[in-house]
Design a protein that fits this description.
Chain lengths: ~110, ~120
């Protein structure tokens, strides 16, 4: 399988705390992307990190990529209740195809 | 901001019936995709489409499925004879070019298909 695997599967934290989600994948990649999905809704792109990058920031998001370990992490700092959602990593497999991981369900309590 | 739109938002159909799910990708995008998500499960790739032909498809995308870009703006997914296990949320997405790493995929809000 070329899917990404996320851990933890579920994460429950308090507002203001940081949330860290990890993703592992199996194939070489051009880039790795993180998406967010609110319950029953579409996927929203959060951040893209290229294979030659090691870290990237966007607002309260920080993504790291370790291609030697085939892993990535997404850190959300100072979390808010509105961050409650499922988070997915996605990588390339084949010519033009994003392959999604299993996702992490994040619950941020006020 | 440009967005991918999907219609209908919810479709209920009887087993064995044909359904067509419709999508309007972002106008300057070149690559189009269908994904599905069975309730509570992962997002699964179905098919990618470029230059008016399928560029890749998964093992899920069997002969019951077809895609079409009939008029230069719409992108449709047809399921010829629906089965109960086709019940899922179907997402359309489009992008300029994923492989080069220049951009991301934009997803529609999905069509919830319920087969009864």
């Amino acid at each position: 399988s070329q899917q990404g695997e996320e851990d933890p599967q579920a994460l429950s934290i308090q507002e203001g705390e940081n949330a860290t989600m990890n993703c592992s994948y199996k194939t070489s990649i051009n880039n790795l992307q993180w998406y967010r999905q609110n319950s029953g809704r579409g996927l929203v792109h959060l951040i893209l990190i290229r294979s030659n990058e090691r870290e990237k920031h966007s607002g309260r998001l920080r993504v790291t990529l370790d291609t030697s370990k085939k892993s990535s992490s997404l850190l959300i700092t100072a979390s808010r209740a509105a961050d409650t959602a499922s988070y997915f990593c996605a990588t390339f497999s084949g010519f033009q195809k994003l392959v999604f991981g299993t996702g992490t369900r994040l619950l941020v309590s006020p | 901001e440009p967005e991918v739109t999907q219609t209908p938002s919810h479709q209920v159909t009887q087993m064995g019936q044909e359904v067509i799910l419709r999508c309007v990708p972002i106008s300057n995008h070149l690559y189009f995709y269908w994904y599905r998500q069975i309730l509570g499960q992962k997002v699964e790739f179905l098919v990618s489409f470029y230059n008016n032909e399928i560029s890749e498809k998964s093992e899920i995308f069997d002969d019951q499925f077809s895609v079409e870009r009939p008029d230069g703006s719409n992108f449709t997914l047809k399921i010829r004879s629906t089965k109960l296990e086709d019940s899922a949320m179907y997402f359309c997405a489009s992008s300029e070019a994923l492989r080069t790493g220049r951009t991301e995929a934009f997803f529609g809000q999905g069509t919830r298909l319920t087969v009864v």
